[in-house]
Each structure stands twice: as structure tokens, then as C-alpha cells.
Amino acid sequence: MDISLLFRIAAIGILVAVLYQVLVRAGREDQAMMTTLAGLIIVLTMVIKEISELFNTVKTIFNL
Length: 64
Prior knowledge:
The chain has helices spanning 3-25, 29-62. By secondary structure, the chain is mainly α. It has one domain.
């Protein structure tokens, strides 16, 4: 795992938090919620790729 992954996740989190606050203040709560869900989906996609690589590494180490 690379440290840049953590920085990317943190950057997405900060961006989503700022967008959420701006949209809520503008009275667009529905769009704010959709922005939050989109950020969550993007981060989960990034994490799932890393978990897949972890399982493949464990398989090769233990010859499964």
C-alpha cells in the first residue's frame, strides 16, 4: 500500500466536506447528500482495489 492512497482519500474527504457545507448553506440538501454518496463510492472503489490486491498476495504466499 502506498502512502499516496491515504493522501488521495483525505483529499477526497476534505473536498466532499467543503462541497457538502456549501450546498447545505445554499439550501440544496439533496445535492449535498448525493455529493457525499458519490465521495463515499469513489473511496470505496479505491479501497476495494487495494483489498483485492491483498487477497491475491495472500493467495500467492500460501499457494492457495
